[in-house]
Amino acid sequence: MHPTIFTLFALSLAALEVYAKLQNVTVKGVTMCDGKRVANVHVMLLEKDALDADDNLASAHTNEEGEFELFGEDDEIGSIEPLIRIHHTCDAKPGCERISEYLVPEDKIGGFYDMTYVTLDIKTAEDKIKCQ
């Protein structure tokens, strides 16, 4: 890459960083399957990116009562697009797991989103299946 082009590219990136702002969200909920709370479910708070891989802001496993609470923050030029991704075996074939995603409402950015009960046995077209 020509040194002048490289310099202009670096300056453009630095200018974009100035316009980025730190944004956050806290999400909590209780995972449910067939009317029962589900412990040890892997829950991730991600920031959806269009051009590259989604950013992992936080992750945890649900406690014995199926409860989780995650806090995450990210620097973005526009508004962050947080989502919850849950890896679980509710209504999955043996040896498989379902991956369900839930968008965090835009008005909850900078605040608190209580998902209350996350009913994992409700399947959506966006659910992914991963088998061993």
From TrEMBL:
Signal peptide from the UniProt entry: 1-20
Which InterPro entries would you find in this protein's record? Transthyretin-like (IPR001534), Transthyretin-like_sf (IPR038479)
**What keywords are assigned to this protein?**
Secreted, Signal
One GO CC term, this protein: cell surface
Q: What is its main location?
A: secreted
Q: What is this protein called?
A: Uncharacterized protein
Compartments where found: Secreted
Q: What Pfam families does its record include?
A: TTR-52 (PF01060)
Q: Which family does it belong to?
A: Belongs to the nematode transthyretin-like family.
Give the organism, scientific name: Caenorhabditis japonica
